[in-house]
Structure formats: C-alpha cells, structure tokens
Write a structure and sequence with these properties.
Number of helices of chain A: 11
Number of domains of chain A: 2
Oligomer: homodimer
Distance between the termini of chain A: 71 Å
Shape of chain A: elongated
Largest interface: A-B, 50 and 49 residues
Structural class of chain A: mainly alpha
CATH architecture of the largest domain in chain A: Orthogonal Bundle
DNA sequence: CAATACAACGGTACTCAGTACCGTTGGGAG
DNA sequence: CTCCCAACGGTACTGAGTACCGTTGTATTG
C-alpha cells in the first residue's frame, strides 16, 4: 500500500531542503538521506535534480497533443487557445505545490530556464498545429502561425503567473477573457479565394479626416485590386 | 599580438569537435587539448561548455538595454520592434558562425534550451520596457504588454530562422515587413481622449456586398457615435 | 639594468550530477 | 516451497565546474 511512497517522500524532502538551504546548496544525497532512501532510488524516480520540481511536463505535453489531435474547432487558433486551458487547469489542480514551485523558479535561474524551455515546447507544438491547420506554406502564413502561438502562450503565462502570485481569484474566466483578446488580435485572413468571395474587403485604420474626404481613395483601393 | 588567440583557438576547436563527434561526445578536455591549452584556460575564457557557442548573449542584451534607454519613439512597441533589429544584425554580422551554431542547436536539446532561455531574457526586457512606457498598471495593459513583447520576439525569431536556414536573401527588409505586421496587430487604444481626435474611425470587416451598397450604413455608423 | 608588479597560463585536487552495473530483499503466483 | 520480479542499496565511474597554487612572460618603474 505504501510502496510508491518513496517518490512522494523524495519530493517532500526536496522541497523542504530547497526552502531551507536553497536549491544549489542542496545535494541529491541530502534529499535521499532525508527521504530515508538510497541515492540510486532518487534517480530511479526522477531523471535529474530539476525533475523533482517539474515531474509531469512531458505527460502534460502529450495530453495537450492528444487534445489537439482530437479537437474540431473552427480555426487552428481557437483550437489551440482552447487546449492551452488544460495547462492552467493542471496547475490549479496542483494547488499549493505549483505555488511553491513558482517561488523556487523565481529565485533560481537554472529552474527558471528549465521552465521556459518547457513552455517553448508547448509553443512549438502550437505553432506547428496552427501551421498545419492553415495548410498554407506561404511565408506570411508561417509568420502568422508563429505570432498566434506566441500570443496564446504569452496570454496563458500572464494569467497563470497572476494566479500563482495570488493576484486573481478566478483565473479560469480571466483566461477566457485573455484568449478572447488573443483571438480578436487576428482578424480572418483576407484575399484567400474561398467560395463566393468576390465582395468588398475593408482594412482598419483611423484618420482625422471625415468619411467624404477619404471616400475617393477608399473607392480606388477597393476597385484597384490589391492596394498598398 | 597573438595573445588572445587562445580564446579563438578554443572556439574553433570546440566547433570542429562538435561537428566531428557531436556535442555530448566531446569533453572539455578534448577541446582544450586540440586548442593546445590547459583545461583551466578553457574555463578562464568560457564559463561553461555551452558558453563556447553562445559567447556574447550578455553583451548583446545590455546593448539592447542601452538602446532602449536612449530611444525616443512614438510608442513602446515601436521602440522595441526597432531595438530588436540589433539582434538580427548581430547574427548577420556573425555570418557563417551563426549558421554553424544553428545546426548545432537544431540537433542538441541542451543547446536549444539554452538559446531559448536567452531569448526569454530579451522578451522579459521588452515586456518590462513596454509596460513601463505605457505606465498603466491595469491588468489588461499588462496583458497587452506581454502580448506585444511576445509578438516582437516571435516575429524576430521567424525572420532570423529563415535567414539561418538560407531561406531569404534579404532578412533586413523581411524584418521590416514582419515588424510592420506586428505593429499592425495592435491598434491604438481607443477611448482615451487625446488632443484633437474627433476624426473618423473605421473598423475592419469583410462583406460580400460592394462599397456603394454598404456606404449608407457605413455613414450611419460614422455619424452615429460609437456603433456596434 | 635590475627589481617589481601583473596578467595569463598549467596542474592538482576537490565537489557533485548523472550513469552503469551488481547484489539483495521482499513479497505474490505457480 | 520455489520461482519470479520489481524495487531497492551500494560501488565505481565519467565529466562539468570550482578553488587554489605555482610558473612564466611581459610591461613598468626606479
């Protein structure tokens, strides 16, 4: 019954020692000793010293990969902005553990780098998914996918960090709002010949002139094909 | 005259050995031996084994910091999107060295992570700069700054990687275009009463009708204050 | 020219993360 | 009871990074 307790004892001992002496000042031997197990056992449960703090980033990544694979949304961006919620929910589920990890990563550069590298893997996954979804090998489409993935991850990190710092009580709805903002950033692509689309396209701008003054150039733009 | 040659010989030896045997299969002793220096000398010139490949990320970061500190642009976003060009120019200046590094980071996970961590420091700098520039402690403004910084970095990485892969011959103008795209993503905040801003504002949309058909409703929108 | 100061170097020894391998133990399943 | 197997502990090793010490070559100053 208490067989997999070693893994938990190791994590507890690690966090406790990290709090007491700091991360660099704690050796793996220290952790193993406090947990009452051998050094070998530590590396059987965790691949590295950092791994004690980030145990299930891999699992979460594949979880999201599956979610994306089985998702059917109107656009790739929306699918991704939906899937990324799983990450937030996972952290919330971890509760206090996630917050202890945050205070650690705030102090120790090595851990922060490690966390960032993990987040980059999500971003890469998102970028590739959106690019595949668009199916447009154009350079501008590629850039667009890159921007979308970056925006989703940035917005997610923003809300997540706010929750980790205790600055919000309802991170889920904040995440909804943030993702709406992100989706709103990227208007539907214009010009790609879909069915029945010989209509008018207006681009957004602001001006100090009134509508009548700029109407001629507006008309020239609309009638003159792709304008600058 | 040939006194700081040790540093260069070390870098050459390192890159050569990394190409021959791979990164993990090369020890610091190997590098020092081929460079004809002692092991201690290696660590005098480079803080770590990874540092041989990323020698001047710190210098570049402070360079950009200075650039931002002494820059006067219309918005924080534009200042940042201007400053980030320094990074691209630096890589272009490195030339072939940057490309050899890219092939390495593409293969070795540890190096990729390291590179990502460096980029994250730029992004953090940008985020803080934009947030300071806006001077708006609101949560939405904070999110906006985060999105802007992420977009600038993503666009930069996009163009940089294209150049590293040899997919573009004119990365500078491509960077200009990408940054224009990024700036265009973020419209000026509306509603904040600036001086003399009683002009016309058009929102973006697409329609199947031609311009004359929708002109009346357009006019109604413009004249009728804030329309939905 | 001689004494001194300094910077770069080489060597040794150490700590610690991570890997490989081997033997031991403690239960279930046949 | 015996076989099996999973989890464990111990030992030994490699390699990165640090600390310290002694040496050498070079520039500076009296």
């Amino acid at each position: 019954m208490s067989k997999p307790a070693a893994r938990i004892r190791l994590a507890d001992a690690a966090f406790a020692l990290f709090d007491e002496r700091g991360y660099e000042q704690t050796t793996v031997d220290d952790i193993a000793e406090r947990a009452g197990v051998g050094r070998t056992t530590f590396f059987r449960h965790y691949r590295s010293k950092e791994d004690v703090i980030f145990p299930d980033h891999d699992r979460l990544l594949t979880l999201i990969k599956d979610r994306l694979a089985t998702s059917s949304h109107s656009t790739g961006l929306i699918a991704v902005s939906d899937a990324v919620r799983l990450v937030l929910l996972h952290y919330i589920d971890e509760g206090d553990l996630a917050r202890r990890r945050y205070t650690l990563t705030s102090k120790v550069a090595v851990l922060r780098d490690r966390e960032i590298a993990s987040v980059a893997r999500y971003q890469r996954l998102f970028r590739e998914f959106i690019a595949d979804w668009m199916g447009d090998p154009t350079e501008s489409a590629s850039l667009r996918a890159e921007l979308m993935a970056a925006a989703v991850v940035a917005a997610h990190n923003h809300v997540l960090r706010r929750w980790l710092r205790g600055e919000t009580s309802d991170p889920v709805v904040e995440m909804d709002e943030a993702m709406r903002d992100v989706v709103a950033l990227f208007p539907a692509p214009s010009g790609s010949g879909e069915a029945g689309d010989a209509g008018t396209t207006l681009v957004a701008f602001r001006t100090g002139q009134d509508l009548d003054t700029l109407l001629p150039s507006l008309r020239r733009l609309v009638e003159g094909g792709t304008g600058r």
